[in-house]
Amino acid sequence: MDFHVNVVQGGEGQNESEYRLVIAGGGPAALSAAIYAARYGISHVVLESWKPGGQAALTAEIENYPGFSRVSGADLTDAMKKQALEAGAVFRMETVETASEKNGRILVKTDSGEYYSDFLIIATGAAPATLGVPGEEEYYGRGVSFCATCDAPFFKNKRVIVVGGGDSAVKEALHLTQVVAELGLVHRRDQLRAEPYLAEKLISNKKVTTYWNSRLLEITGDGQGVTGAVIDTPEGQKNLETDGIFLYVGTKPASEPFETLVELDSQGAVVTRGIVGTSNPAVFAAGDVTNNGFRQVVTAVSDGARASAAVFDLIQHSER
Amino acid sequence: MAMRQIPGNKIAEETKDFHKMTLVDFSATWCGPCKMLHPVLESLSGELGDRINFLTVDIDQNPSEANQFGVRGVPTMIIFYAGKEIERMVGFRDKSSLKKDLEALAVRTLG
User: Fold this and answer.
1) Which domain holds residue A222?
2) Mutation test of the interface with chain A: which of B38, B90, B102, choosing the one with the most A Cβ atoms within 10 A?
3) Is residue A74 part of a domain?
4) By CB atoms within 10 Å of each CB, which of A95, A176, A225, A301 scores lowest?
């Protein structure tokens, strides 16, 4: 990989909007990058986009992060942020709107200012994807939800449908089984993609009915809220009565501000080279915004650490 | 002007204003996105306070009002003008996009 980067010397005494490194994002990848950047003594700022903790903070329980048998996503990301602050990380609640190259440096524009840096770590994560079926937008917040952790209490002793078959779908469905009366799981394949341990735990729950090789076609309601769903199954279309529909059908990388700065794939994910490198030698990417595939907290924090270590290596190299 | 927490039985009275719009944030202490949204609304209440009142209602303390206003997810923001609901937004919104939408709504509603 070509690492010829125009590094401007000196992190001290610079204008407060000039840094060696800008870290964009507020989830585990960004928080890990922040911990390492602070400990390496790299002049930096974390632009956490008014969304501290990212998607992980919305996960009810995380059971596969080493060191914690069971921890809420919010508690884990809160602890990461506390650790980053103790290490000396600098945070600003600003949303990155665009990033470009200017005079050999990176110019990051936010909703409240501009930052110049020599390096950028993109760790902006991903947002839940939508299906675009009738009723989805109309009933969002009136029975359609992307966050079981947030909305489960509204469905106590009621019927809900969960759409999806990955780790997020299964974890959130398990959370819902603690409060709902019945749960229908609609998945387009004939088996779940989630960890077998979680998948078995969900399927064996007596409240759960599975609809394999099935797709959600329409969400129906009475104008006030969701009352049903139309699904396509191998036996034909079925009309299910339900009070709520939780959608976990993948994610959309939050890469829009960086589309002119680095190569993105057809799904909008940042294309990585050598784990955290990108098409731009001064830009690194970490976590769910990348095309690395395995979207876990443990891989996101690994990416964040590697990205800050790569920046540190480049700075050392340029100063030799 | 800072955001104020109000009891559910004051919603009707507090949203009658026809000089300003009123944003009511239905929120819960256990809800992650609600916690993320709170500083956004606090900040916007300082910037848009001359045109919009910012109020928050705890749904656990006011379940009947949450039900009355059809809230089935949190955070839900309902924007009122002269006692009537004119807009509803659900889920976390980042500051810049929420500010743009509220400013556009204020121009359409208040002129």
Assistant:
1) 144-247
2) B90
3) yes
4) A225
* CA A142/CA A291 separation, integer angstroms: 33
Nearest CA in chain B to A59: B32
Determine, for residues A50 and B40 on separate chains, whether the beta-carbon distance falls below 8 Å. yes
Give SS3 for B24. Answer: strand
- Of the partner residues B32, B73, B94, the one whose CB lies closest to the CB of residue A141: B73
Do A226 and A266 share a domain, yes or no? no
B10, B14, B28, B31: which one is catalytic? B31
**From the list B33, B39, B99, which residue is nearest A150 (CB)?**
B33
Q: What CATH number does the domain containing A87 carry?
A: 3.50.50.60
Q: Is the pLDDT confidence value at A164 over 90?
A: yes
Task: Set out the domains of chain B in order of their start, with CATH numbers.
Answer: 4-105 (3.40.30.10)
Say what the pLDDT of residue A3 is: 38
Q: Does B82 touch chain A (CB under 8 A)?
A: no
User: Can you tell me the ipTM of this complex?
Assistant: 0.77
Q: Is A9 domain-assigned?
A: no
Instruction: Share the mean pLDDT of chain A.
Output: 91
Question: What pLDDT does A4 receive?
Answer: 41
Cα(A196)–Cα(A319) distance, integer angstroms: 49
pTM for this prediction: 0.79
Instruction: State the DSSP H helix or E strand holding residue B65, giving kind and residue range, or none if neither.
Output: helix B63-68
Counting the structural domains of chain A, the total is 2
On chain B, the residues whose CB falls within 8 A of the CB of A147 are 32-33, 73, 91
Q: What is the number of residues in chain A?
A: 320
Peptide bond into A128 cis (omega under 30): no
Q: Looking at the structure, do residues A70 and A119 belong to the same domain, yes or no?
A: yes
Closest A-chain CA to B96:
A111
Residue B34 is among the residues annotated as catalytic for this protein: yes
Residue pair A270/A74 in contact (Cβ under 8 Å)? The answer is: no
B61: Cβ contacts below 8 Å, ≥ 6 apart:
B7, B8
Nearest CA in chain A to B60: A153
The whole-angstrom distance between B31's CA and the closest CA on chain A is 5
